[in-house]
Amino acid sequence: MTALITALAALGGGLRDRLRDVRDDPERGSLSVEQVIITVALIGIAVALVAVIANAVTSRSASIQ
């Protein structure tokens, strides 16, 4: 039982320290506009690639039958 209480106390202390760090630096972890634009562009490229592959597979499967 003592080991469990010790582990919980250590976990609580670590979480308290992390929460204090986040409160001290509100900019930490925020996304910049450039990161959002790059992410949207990569998602658009991925969607276009999936559409091209799905179209190719559909046309090839139609020619097999």
List the SSEs and their pairings.
Layout: H1 2-24, H2 33-64
- Helix and strand content put the structural class at mainly alpha
Compute the gyration radius: what is it? 25 Å
Reported for the largest beta sheet, the result is:
none
The percent of residues in helical segments reads over 70%
Q: Summarize model confidence as the mean pLDDT.
A: 85
Number of strands: 0
| Overall body shape | elongated
Q: Report the end-to-end length measured between terminal Cα atoms.
A: 68 Å
Q: How many individual domains?
A: 2
**H/E order of the elements?**
HH
- Low-pLDDT parts are none
Overview of this protein structure:
- The chain is an all-alpha fold.
- It folds into two domains: 1-28; 31-65.
- Helix content is 85%, strand content 0%.
- The chain has two helices and no strands.
- It is elongated and about 70 Å long.
- The chain starts with a helix and ends with a helix.
Quick structural gist:
With 65 residues, the protein is mainly alpha-helical. Helices cover 85% and strands 0% of the residues.
Descriptive labels:
single chain; 65 residues; mainly alpha; 2 domains
